Amino acid sequence: MDNRLSIKFESGLNEQTYKFRTSNELQGFSDVERLIDGEFLDKVQESFIHIEKAKNGVISRFYPKMREEFEEII
Questions:
Q1: H-assigned helices in the chain
Q2: Is the pLDDT of residue 67 over 80?
Q3: Is residue 67 part of a domain?
Q4: Residue 50 falls inside a structural domain
Q5: Total structural domains in the chain?
Q6: Pairwise CA distance, residues 1 & 40, whole Å
Q7: Is residue 43 part of a domain?
Q8: Which residue has the higher pLDDT, 4 or 73?
Q9: Alpha carbon of 32 to those of 7, 62, 64, 71: distances in Å?
Q10: Cα–Cα distance between 9 and 16 in angstroms, integer?
Q11: Is residue 73 part of a domain?
């Protein structure tokens, strides 16, 4: 793919794609497996949390909360 390797992560309806240029050290799947470590995965997970918060924020602004149409009963 144009001297690039792509790695896609999915969580629910969200996804993240990271692209890396190939090199002598990074040429295939086994190299990518060594590249993706726990620290990187933690950062990806943090990004998913921010993505979900941003998505929920825009949805709540786009779809105003339904107002209760019943009279208050005392």
A1: 29-35, 38-62
A2: no
A3: no
A4: yes
A5: 1
A6: 23
A7: yes
A8: 4
A9: 8, 39, 44, 61
A10: 5
A11: no
At residue 9, the 3 state secondary structure works out as: strand
Q: Take residue 48 and report the two structure tokens written for it.
A: 């998913």
* pTM listed for this prediction: 0.73
Rounded CA-CA distance 56/37 in Å is 29
Cβ 21 vs Cβ 3: under 8 Å? yes
What residues make up the domain containing 39? 4-62
* Residue found by looking up tokens 């990271």 in the block: 18
CA 6/CA 19 separation, integer angstroms? 4
- Distance spanning both ends of the chain, measured CA to CA: 68
Asked if 5 and 19 count as a contact pair (C-beta separation under 8 A), the reply is: yes
Is residue 74 classed as helix, strand or coil in its secondary structure?
coil
Provide the 3-class DSSP secondary structure of residue 6.
strand
How many Å apart are CA 26 and CA 33, to the nearest integer? 10
